[in-house]
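Figure 3 (text version): structure tokens given as input.
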């Protein structure tokens, strides 16, 4: 990852310049963006996007479900209850469930 854009307390954009999934390179050239904005409830909204995919083949669907877990489950649990659920734990639970 390379930081492509950074605005303190508002925006982080990463440009994917390498990928660690063996045999896949479809992350390369994509952009991951986290944008923060104050809302009317005196809280903060997070706008997330992972864009510039060349195709929806390869690791796209795994990434989509991974981001859903990281942001929709783990981060939410961490902010509300003080304990997140790392994605690796989620993969291990799914693997154990499929094996039984």
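Below: residues designed for each position.
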């Amino acid at each position: 990852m390379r930081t492509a854009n950074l605005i303190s307390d508002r925006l982080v954009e990463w440009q994917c310049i390498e990928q660690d999934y063996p045999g896949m390179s479809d992350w390369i050239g994509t952009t991951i963006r986290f944008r923060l904005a104050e809302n009317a409830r005196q809280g903060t909204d997070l706008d997330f996007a992972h864009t510039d995919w060349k195709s929806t083949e390869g690791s796209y669907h795994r990434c989509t479900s991974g981001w859903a877990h990281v942001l929709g489950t783990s981060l939410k649990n961490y902010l509300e209850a003080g304990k997140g659920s790392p994605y690796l734990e989620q993969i291990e639970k799914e693997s154990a469930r499929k094996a039984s």
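The helical segments are 60-81, 87-99.
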